[in-house]
Amino acid sequence: MPLFSLSRTNSRRGMEPLRQKLRKATGEVDRPKQTTPPVILLAKNKAGTLEIKEKYGYVSKDRNAAPVDFDSTFWGASCTKLVTAVAAMQVVEKGLVDLDEDVGRILHEWKDPIVLEGFDDKGKPITRPAKTKMTLRHLLTLQSGMPYGILDETIQKYMRATGQSLKGHTLQDQSCWPLLFDPGEEWRYGYSIDWAGVVVERVTNSACLGDYMAKHIWGPLGMDNTAFRIQHRTDIKDRLVQIYQRNHDGSMSKTNVDYFPGIYDGGGGGLFFQPTDYMKLLESLMMNDGKVLKPETRDMLFEPQLKDSKALDYLRHLPEGLRNSMLCSTPPTTDINWGLGGLLMMEDVKGKRRKGTLSWAGMSNLYWWIDPTSEVCGFFASQILPPGETEVTNLNMEWELAVYDELRKVTS
C-alpha cells in the first residue's frame, strides 16, 4: 500500500482491522510468514475513557523466540530527545541556565564556534567565526548548526578534506566540527540535543545524564526499566528485542549494529526502555500533572519556536523513508513548526492529530504523539530499520487513525 493512501472510511472501523493485520504481519497467525518485528501499541486519553495496551509478535525471528511482552526492552533511539528536553527545561526552571544565554559558559567546546562557509577551488574548507552565540534554545530546537555527519554531505566533504573520521566514541569526536550556519539561522537534524544533555550534566554536577534523569524523571514517574548504556544493566539488556533490517527483497535480517558503542549518555538517541515506561512520560505531559515539569514549563514544550517554518523544508527534501519517519507519518504538505520538545502540527490532520500536537520518532520505527486538544497521547513501538520502512509506516498510520476512531466512540 502506498503511503498516505488510507481512506477516511478506514478510520471508522476502529482497532479490529489493524489487529488482524498485526497478528498476520508479526507471525502470530503463521510464523513462517512473519513480515515485521514485534509491535507494541499504547494510547490513553486524559479523561481515562480510552486506554489501549496491546502487543504483537516475538522478540526475534528465531524459531524458539519468546513472544514480546510489555517488559521487553526496546532501543528508543531519537525518542530519547523528548526525555532530554524535559531534563533541560527542569534546569531552566531551577534557574541553573537561561534558555537564551550563551551556552559557551557551560560548554567550553562551543565557546567560540566557527561556521563552514564552503570550500576553495582546491577543496580546502573556508571557515569564519560564528556571528551569533549558541544558546540552549538553539540546542533544543535544532537550530545550533550541528548536523549528523552521516546525514550531511557538506560535513562528509569537510571530514575528507581535513583527513578526519566521522567515527568516534565521545560526543566531541562525533560532533565538534564547524557549524553549517550561524546559530538560530536555520534548522538541521543533528547532535544539538545530545549537547543539551551535556548542559544538564554540567550545571547539576551529575556524573552522567542518566544519573540526573533517574532522580528527576524516571524515579518520579516510575520508569524503572529505562537506562542508557545497558551493557551495565543486565536486567534490562537480557530482555532486549532484536532489531531487524528490511532487505531489498522484502525479507528481514538481523542488524549487526553495535548498540552499546558509546562512553557517554547520548541525550539524542541513547535510551533503552520498556515502551510502557516511555508511555508514563507521555501521559504525564498530556495530563500536565506537574510531576516532572511545572504546568507553565510543560506548555512551553508545545509553543512554536521557528520564526519561519520554511526552515523545516529540509525534512521534506530528505529521502522518502527518512522523510516519512521525521514527519511522523503525516502528509508532507502538513503545516509544521518545531517546539522545545519536538515536531509541532500547525493544522489539524484529517481523522488524526489536531493542531498543537507534539510528536517525534525513533530511528528503529518508534512513533509518539501528544495531542493536547484531543487530550490523547499514543506510542507505536517497533524495532526495524531503515527509518520510515514502508510496511511499518503504513501500520503506524493506520494505528493513529484507529486511535482517533476509538476516541470518537468514547467522546461522542
Structural class: alpha+beta
What is the CATH top level name of the largest domain?
Answer: Alpha Beta
> In what order do the strands lie side by side in the largest sheet?
2-1-14-13-12-11-10
Instruction: Tell me what portion of residues adopts beta-strand conformation.
Output: 5-15%
Helicity level, as a percent range? Answer: 25-40%
Shape: globular
Number of domains: 2
Number of helices: 13
The name of the CATH superfamily of the largest domain reads DD-peptidase/beta-lactamase superfamily
Q: What is the structure about, briefly put?
A:
By secondary structure, the chain is of the alpha+beta class. 30% of the residues lie in helices and 15% in strands. The strands form 4 sheets. Strands 2-1-14-13-12-11-10 form a 7-stranded antiparallel sheet, with helices on both faces. The protein has a 3-stranded antiparallel sheet with strand order 3-9-6. A 3-stranded mixed sheet has the order 8-7-15, with no helix packed on it.
Structural commentary:
This protein has 412 residues and is α+β, with helices and mostly antiparallel strands. It has two domains: 9-83 and 208-411, DD-peptidase/beta-lactamase superfamily (Beta-lactamase), CATH 3.40.710.10; 97-203, no CATH class. It contains 13 helices and 15 strands. The protein has helices spanning 16-25, 80-93, 136-140, 153-162, 171-175, 192-203, 209-221, 234-237, 275-287, 295-300, 313-316, 320-326, 390-411, and strands at residues 39-45, 51-56, 74-75, 114-119, 125-129, 226-227, 244-246, 252-254, 272-273, 336-338, 343-345, 358-362, 366-371, 376-381, 384-385. α2 (80-93) crosses α6 (192-203). The radius of gyration is 21 Å and the shape is globular. The two termini are 31 Å apart. Residues 1-33 are annotated as: Disordered. Pfam families: Beta-lactamase (PF00144).
